[in-house]
Design brief:
single chain; alpha/beta; about 150 residues; 7-stranded mixed sheet
Length: about 150
Amino acid sequence: MKTETSTQTITVVVVDDHPLASTGVAHLLKPEPDLDVAAVCYGDVEAVNAVLRHEPAMVVFEFPNPRAGCQEMLRTVAVAHPRARLIVVAQHTSEIDRFRDAGASGFLTTDQARKFLAPCIRNVHAGATWIEYTGRMRRVSTPPGGSYIVGGG
């Protein structure tokens, strides 16, 4: 008996502090058959316009060097499209709590994004929380509705 499987395409909008890096994230996701990068944008206004136009399931923010205003950008996008799940790729883990407070359900460090961004998107899309630590090499992916876990060492 043949079992049919359906794959749902997850629409993603990529937002970045730096235009060259955002095209890198899009390029990283291109080979993933179930992930569709609908837009790559730079800054608040482009991000809001892209989420209103495409209504993505996921918005991936890359902040190589988080600055003042990054959390506000997340909040602005979350208000524009509340059903979208947010993931942040940043260089330092010191920002995790601030991004979580701004609405992010996933966090990856830039050095782990190549390996874990696609699985992170899939898990967060399914309702999980995903936190990636570089120094501790500890990945936490909770079940849908699971609690946020930080620390351990």
